[in-house]
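Budget justification, computational time. The allocation requested in the original proposal was used primarily to generate structure tokens for proteins on the priority list. As evidence of use, we reproduce two of the resulting records. The first is shown immediately below.
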Amino acid sequence: MELRHLEAFVAVVEHKGFRRAAEHLYLSQPAVSARIRELELTLGTPVFDRGHQSVVLTAAGESLLGPAQLMLDAARSARRSVQLTASSGDVTLAIMPGGALEMTRPLLVELARRFPRVGFHYRSLGMHQWHPRILEEVDLLITREPYPAADTVMTVLLSEPVGVGVPSSFEESDAAVLSLQQVAARAMVRMADSVPREIVTHWSLTSLTNGWEVERRGPAADGPLETRDRVESGFGMAVAPASVSRLYGQGAYRFVPLEGVADSRVVLVSAVDSSTDLIRAIHREAADVVARLSPLVLGGGSAAVDEVVSAAMQL
């Protein structure tokens, strides 16, 4: 019994027929049928019931399906590991604050493990360092909206609700959800002039409500921690993604989702014109890591990763 036999068998099951399995495998239908016959000769028993119009597994086929899928997964994983181990080079990966940092740490640790010959150089960016052409300075960026103004390749790491940070002293702090109309009546925390206009515009009620102007109060804030402090002090509300509450919310800070507002996405992004085979491989592996490590928890043990995540937490 060879992997090509198992590959044909699983393809017939998953694609519900010999013709579609052949198209998936880029083989002729007779070639797929021949592989199934060879498999049955090796096993000494049929794996499909030929008396039905549709694909029906025999008892032997049912018992084979699970182990066959595991064997194919193991073979693909081994092949991918060999290919990734051969990848080499240096990559600069930057991280913007306010992302889902529970995800960032295990993602970076696992990427470093999967690419042992790649030198990852981590860079922590403050909000004031963002600009539309940031991808000219780094190979990869973990960020959320607004995205750099360039042709980009994106891998979504997380999608989560958008809401407002509310002082516990406000009556709205106990609400399950708030409308834009309710929030527009309240003052918002002032943002520092050093924060790029694109970020201020995106994370504001003015952007979400097509131009409503709101009152802004308090000392200017230039990052999530300062914003939390201003909210806790009662100067006003602040638009934020749900993860900000988990990372920075404490004491008098409450997070309340906004009704009818699109989710915010954390992404791994690179410029199209710098998308080498290595960068594309990192995108693919990042998607696989996120799928496998959900739900994610803090972990690691890499000094480089711990340093950049700790720095980002302070921004």
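The second record produced under the same allocation is shown here.
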Amino acid sequence: MKGKQAAGYRAVDWVEDGMTIGLGTGSTAYWAIQRIGERVKEGLKIRTVATSKASEKLARELNIPLFSAADIPWIDLTIDGADEVDPQMNLIKGGGGALFREKMVALQSDRLIVVADDAKEISVLGTFKLPIEVVPFASEWTFRNLQKRYDVPLEFRRQEEGIYITDNGNYIIDAAFGRIDDPKKLAAELKSITGVVDHGLFVEMAETTVIGHEDGTVSIRHKS
């Protein structure tokens, strides 16, 4: 936990008065939101938009000013987590189920800062199952079409109450691709499949990664 907290807190150093900030989702982004809440209490003036209902709830509890996407023309900076980060700063996201909103906010941002603990750093993406958000209508067809095309283990994400439903009312198919040597190609292919809303590959989007270590230190990399 020390690594996640260190990364989340350090990323907030880039937040400045008057900015519009995207609030990410997940166990490391949680610490960034906590730190933003502390700074707001100290007098920081910002506007924010959340990437999930969970992050929105946390922001409200901390009295962080929240706005709807309709009121936000552009975002200066988004701080978000990742499930995997490769040496080129490509990501797999969506373990928490918020991948679509996270991507929308990231694409609307001047800068995406990714926070994670060092266990998330890997040489090649694909150890973590790739989340694919799909529309509920004919989702079984989408599932079969994905299976025919890629022949990899797939499963609908489930929870105790049954099938997992995203904040957008969609389903998630988790795909065990294994080693993803060309994430850019796979990302484009998946987006072209009817029934797929989006997926957890965030390619060439991160500007900075802040990786936390259990001793409380952080490693920072910037896009070259």
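A brief technical remark on that second record: The radius of gyration is 17 Å.
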